[in-house]
Amino acid sequence: MSITKKATVLALGLGMVGGLAACGSSGDDGRGAGDSKTVTLVSHNSWAVSKDVIAAFEKSSGYKVRVLEDGDAGQAVNKAVLTKDNPQGDVFFGVDNTLLSRALDNGLFQPYEAKGSDLVLPEYRTDQDKHRVTPVTTGDVCVNYDKAYFSEHKLTPPDSFDDLVKPEYRNLLVTENAGSSSPGLGFLLGTAAEYGDQGWEDYWKKLKANGVKVVDSWEQAYNEEFSGSSGGKKAKGDRPLVVSYASSPPAEVIYADPQPATAPTGVATGTCFRQVEYAGLLSNAGNPEGGKALLDFLLGKEFQDDMPLNMFVYPVREGAEIPEAFRKYGPQAEDPRTMDPAKIADNRDQWVKSWTSLVLK
Predict the structure, then answer these.
(1) For 285-326, how does the pLDDT look when each residue is reduced to its tens digit (9 = 90+)?
(2) What are phi and psi of 261, to 5 degrees?
């Protein structure tokens, strides 16, 4: 989820991004990506893993892991494509289904079928004939709502795309720029899946007329504009609806002190778009054997069990542990909007261009 995502470490106004990301990096020990004892992972800035889990991999594999975090998902993918002939590392993690075609069409990855690929749940598998990417995480981009606001105003929270254009929800929603933000793009694709190639533009005209606010990033939308998050409360955010993730409510519980009995935010499950996040062995990787070992690790049960409470996304491996807080406060949508990656590839750039002209001008 680069869902953008993924997905995606939730800051919650508590400085969690820096703390969690540090757990995922073994630091730059001065050795380059071509060092046979070092394997370099290039990722967006929401990469995170428990120290003991990465240490166990380093001990068993003999490789030291070096992590390069390179901005949000879109920025990281674009930079990786531009540097593909002389890549910064060996493995790239963080390209999701909304941007996958950009990476594949530009030859970013070389084939490798990671160990455990047969245990990936069928709905998350892709590129099965060439094995250029390995599914690692999944998550749902959904509208979140501030429970206290809707209770105080005696207003039923929205639960569908159709609801969001109703007069009672005027000036309540904040979303991210579809041209610069992974959840913003996921939300746009969700509306295209819901209303079709022609109907999504009419929908956005209605959404704009109903006062939707657009900001550049998820951090700004969730931690500054949204009234329901801990960060938004501190920033005096005044929008009780935000495009975020289905796993955002569990994070609001887990990182609160003291923890509340129930999540202060909820999910409009009829607005969800399913993201899948991939990793791949970079073309021209300096340490391809180390990269292969790292990809095996990303699909291993230890990492898949560890990942949800670090990056707040779901595992893709069959039998991986789902935290109780996820099941209770942030279950995956039963009927999320989805779209074939080929359709995304054919339409994404034009849709973003049309969306920009329609909504931002």
Answers:
(1) 999 999 999 999 999 999 999 999 999 999 999 999 999 999
(2) -70, -25
